[in-house]
Design goal:
The protein is about 20% helix and about 35% strand. The protein has five helices and 17 strands. Strands 11-17-16-15-14-13-12 form a seven-stranded antiparallel sheet.
Length: about 350
């Protein structure tokens, strides 16, 4: 079941232009385009006459016209013109669904659920993308042929770094697997803090003169439906007990966000961006991050393919799966609550 009363990344701002674009989200075809005033519109990609995709039509001003019989819809999904017919009455079945949206930080957010619950105050905070002293990138996208839940659990599972990302983010496998983990749950999602102490410096950080051969690494992760954020703090080992209370103790810092948007039951839109605190060398940039994430994609798509063959067989959980198990419990509770609300309505 997809959680719908949540803000998801629908598109990067530059993706949406006056040329209609089709995107499938939660098995729903959506047409995205820009109106004459520059604002984005997102409608169901379906003309109400014969279900022809509006994404194959033409945008004129604030409206989009079907390329089959010319029915024309405004940004609210109202049919404003049907050749040879009077203007359709309000609430007519000829009108189509419009999705609530909001554009900020170069992202167009979409609400897939009840429009009455689409509160923009609930949009995740990515204001850190404007912090001075950092270099940021956005626009990352991967079409993942795996279910969204697999991606979410992979992001919460930091122990795979030693194997999947051993040439970039990895370090000693036993020290990585033995990291100190703390997990907490709120109404919003799950927070996971992982501390690695006195580990060999991962390859991606070795080029910097700010750290030596051994480091302490603190990873502050937060997942909510549709989005995972992570803040990684690096310092030389041997100081006072590592803590996130004083960020100046960590000369190397990276941040990232990962949009987890279900396309279908077995495919996902994987949006991503991030940045690094400006230091003596370039830390992880957008191109390098993309290559690292592709390593995860190989794993997740292989698991998805194997699910078709052995998905009925049991799996085991390890000590580092605590965050994953709490996340599953959170989703179950959130799904039950959303279903109950729909039933009441």
């Amino acid at each position: 079941m997809f959680l719908r009363n949540v803000w998801y990344i629908g598109a990067w701002s530059p993706e949406v232009t006056v040329k209609p674009m089709r995107r499938l989200i939660m098995n729903e075809p959506i047409v995205m385009y820009r109106c004459a005033d520059g604002k984005a519109a997102m409608l169901e990609d379906r003309c109400s006459h014969r279900r022809f995709p509006l994404s194959k039509g033409v945008v004129t001003g604030d409206t989009i016209q079907c390329g089959y019989h010319g029915l024309t819809f405004d940004r609210k999904g109202t049919c404003v013109y049907a050749p040879g017919h009077d203007r359709p009455a309000p609430n007519s079945r000829i009108h189509i669904k419009a999705y609530p949206l909001d554009e900020r930080d170069g992202i167009i957010w979409i609400w897939m659920g009840d429009p009455e619950k689409a509160d923009c105050a609930l949009i995740p905070d990515l204001s850190w993308l404007h912090e001075p002293g950092w270099r940021f990138w956005t626009g990352g996208y991967i079409h993942l042929k795996s279910q969204d839940q697999g991606l979410a659990e992979n992001l919460l599972d930091i122990s795979h770094l030693a194997y999947v990302h051993k040439s970039t983010m990895g370090s000693d496998p036993d020290l990585i697997a033995g990291g100190k983990t703390d997990v907490s749950v709120s109404d919003e999602g799950v927070r996971r803090t992982v501390l690695f102490e006195n580990i060999p410096t991962p390859p991606v950080y070795r080029q910097s003169r700010l750290v030596m051969d051994k480091i302490d690494q603190l990873s502050l992760g937060h997942i909510r439906p549709g989005l995972y954020q992570n803040h990684v703090l690096i310092r030389n080992c041997g100081g006072p007990p590592p803590s996130a209370d004083n960020l100046t103790d960590y000369p190397i810092q990276t941040r990232s966000f990962h949009g987890i948007v279900p396309e279908t039951d077995v495919s996902t839109h994987y949006f991503n961006g991030g940045g690094f605190k400006e230091i003596d060398v370039q830390a992880i940039n957008g191109d390098q991050a993309h290559q690292i994430l592709l390593e995860d994609v190989d794993v997740l798509e292989a698991i998805q393919a194997n699910e078709l063959l052995v998905g009925h067989r049991p799996v085991v959980n390890l000590r580092n799966d605590a965050a994953v198990m709490r996340w599953r419990a959170f989703l179950k509770k959130a799904g039950e609550a959303e279903t109950a609300q729909v039933g009441i309505a």
